[in-house]
Specification:
eight-stranded mixed beta sheet; two-stranded parallel ribbon; alpha/beta; Glucose Oxidase, domain 1; 8 helices; about 30% helix
Length: about 250
């Protein structure tokens, strides 16, 4: 039996606190902390209107090499590592796959996706493709991919090499257990250790943005209200007191 490691999942309260914060806000907040590009380039939303926050289960693909990989070895399905990353899935987990940007290998299809959703998985992120689009779309499972293909996962030039190891996905390093924040803007990787500070800063930002948005739609000066100028802080605080639920 193939053995693959599980991940350490972040505290539930961190996940819950991040659910009201969008990928753009998380990316911008991390940017101010020195993370220049926590956003994956390549995987894009396949079913718009979805947003997820959850810990990363990782799957790494490598280029096929005949001395390291032979498809004949896959006669036993349990040797297929792309199955094993799904075995670890718990409610709210996100599978993140480094498929090397390959556009001709379908990492998962209908049945694998159905199993993952049945396990309570939150969503799938792949720097590459999936297959069985008509049936997968019926699952309404949040997906961020480069595209779709009719080919199966090892049909062309890559093969799964490791589960729950550090990977690069869309040009971003992903450590197993990192928090994935994804919506229509894209996918952002948030290190667990940075989450409390990101939550704190993002909540402050979100609060004054509500006020600024009200002022801007009224035609108020952009220079004063975005970003909120120090000279407008007293006005903002007065608005907060009169709108405590906003």
């Amino acid at each position: 039996m193939t053995h693959t490691p599980d991940i350490t999942r972040p505290p539930r309260e961190l996940i819950d606190a991040l659910k009201g914060i969008g990928a753009a806000t998380v990316a911008g907040t991390l940017g101010h902390m020195g993370f220049r590009s926590p956003h994956m380039v390549g995987p894009v939303a396949q079913n718009h209107g979805k947003s997820i926050v959850g810990p990363a289960l990782t799957l790494q693909f490598l280029p096929q090499r005949p001395d390291l990989f032979n498809e004949g070895e896959y006669a036993d399905p349990e040797t297929q590592l792309h199955r094993h990353v799904l075995y670890h899935a718990q409610e709210g987990d996100v599978v993140v796959v480094d498929a090397r940007g390959d556009m001709s290998s379908g990492v998962f299809g209908d049945m694998m996706s159905t199993y993952f959703k049945g396990r309570g998985g939150a969503g799938i992120v792949i720097d590459g493709c999936m297959r069985d689009r008509p049936n997968v779309e019926k699952l309404d499972l949040p997906l961020w991919l480069r595209g779709w293909t009719p080919n199966y996962h090892v049909q062309t030039g890559i093969y799964p090499n490791a589960v729950n190891v550090p990977i690069a996905c869309g040009g971003v390093t992903v450590i197993p257990g990192d928090i994935i924040v994804a919506d229509d803007d894209g996918v952002v990787v948030l290190p667990v250790a940075m989450a409390p500070q990101v939550i704190e800063e993002a909540q402050k930002h979100a609060e004054w943005e509500v006020f600024s948005r009200i002022k801007l739609i009224e035609g108020a000066p952009l220079q004063r209200y975005y970003p909120l100028h120090p000279s407008a802080f007293d006005e903002y605080e007065a608005w907060r007191k009169s709108n405590p639920k906003s």
